[in-house]
Amino acid sequence: MVTHRPARLATALAASALVLAGCGVLPFGGGTGTGGSDGGASSSASSTDGSAGGGSASGGTGTSDGALPKAGTSHAAGLKTDPAEDQAYASYYGQSIDWQPCEDYAGAQCGTLTVPKAWDDPSTGDLELAMVKVPATGQRTGTLFMNPGGPGGSGVSFVGDSATMIVGSDVREKYDMVGFDPRGVAGSSPVRCLDDAQTDEYLSATYDMTTPEGLEEGRTWAKTVADSCAQNSGDLLEYVDTLSAARDMDVMRAAVDSEKLDYLGFSYGTYLGATYADLYPSRAGRMVLDGAIDPTLTGDQIAEGQAGGFEVATERFAAWCVEQGSETCPLKGDATQGVQQIRDFFAATSEQPVATDDPQRPLTGALARSGVLVGLYNDENWPYVAQGLQEAMTGDGTLLLQLADMSSERDADGTYASNGSFAITAVNCLDHPAVEDEAWMKEDSARMAQEYPTFGPMLGYNGLTCGAWPAGPLREPAPLDAKGSGPILVVGTTYDPATPYPWAQALAEQLDDGHLITWNGDGHTAYGRSGGCVEDAVDQYLLAGTVPAEGLTCE
What is the pTM of this model? Predict the structure, then answer.
């Protein structure tokens, strides 16, 4: 068995925070970007595990009575030819990458690749994508492309920082590991919105969306962000959908001389990978999709799934915490009482922020929720959440603020290392339509706040952000079957708060040759955290093409 070392806290938190969000959704490792603490649109969100007490098995029923906006057409949809065989795209498919030593990542090589901005009209212009490669440690047999999630997660920093922690030594020996920033993200023609000071204000903003005043503040922030992104990004916002990013991946495949694309995607990366396999089933190689998103869900259903998932995660954290005793856990009584104390703490910080070691940045209700929420992505981080709550409840919010900053990739000097807080919105508003009728949003958000009182209030009003957005949506919710592909592994964690286990079940069922691996565990995604069972099955598949026994369940 190969031993997998856990990623360091900062890397794990940053990756988990950039899993999928936008419109009112959290990170699938993402989200919309604001932190209205008592019912505002969140900055990003994925969903939860229905079997563990979250939303319904489909991830929620949020759009049962609301009409979705009519979707437009992606510039990457409906191409009449295969770009790989069309002379109009020959300059893109004929590229090779000039790999050079990276300045920021020891032992890694960095490069760039050019792709058409509009896949249906290359004359529109080009986008430049940032890439990183960590060479195989032994006799190379292939290239393994990787995506950490989001949307908005940087694959360059993910692989560049943590290549030795992501996969086992046997896989590193045989594969070049390649990470990339999808279009619109980080180093790849990034979406630009608020400046750093404005982003601080945006992410700390705390307001009660159940009141007229709070709702108006939510509207104001939605418009402010949308206007800023439109002004600073222009028409790029029309071109950062996942279908376009999946076509970009085929150019990457060709650039490394691979006949098929081998791939390991986490969270949002599962949606990107499944989209690629659906576009190019004959070129989909060994693909592992861990922490899956169900492509049939709307933005509202995603948000409800996550609200339920994080409700269950909070309950399980509280049960663990009270078992640790009063020296390390500030919660009193049983788990139910502990959950209520966390809710009361959020309400108190919304009224009166807690001081931190930065006099200019107190811990607001929105930041407190963000700090706790990101820690719930991985049960290995629960001790940090407990410590952060203990300190904040006694007047020092520094640790929870640091956790919140890790989730948004804010550095100590006040700069943001990535544009993830806005890229997630830009992508999700194109990919996942949400109901924009305000009367429906008000009623549905009130229901979510009642059913999922810990994080439900921050996950309502999904359509507010995307309703103000300058572009989208470009896709109707629909299954992806990748008909004609080889076997694809889908990994689901039973108590995953961000991408519920039923989503993994749904994707594995939709795929023409999908195979589900189940891990009975807590936290978001399984590979590298399950203690060996998931890792061994995935590694054997990547190295030898061995498909695990049907129904494999890891404890």
Answer: 0.91
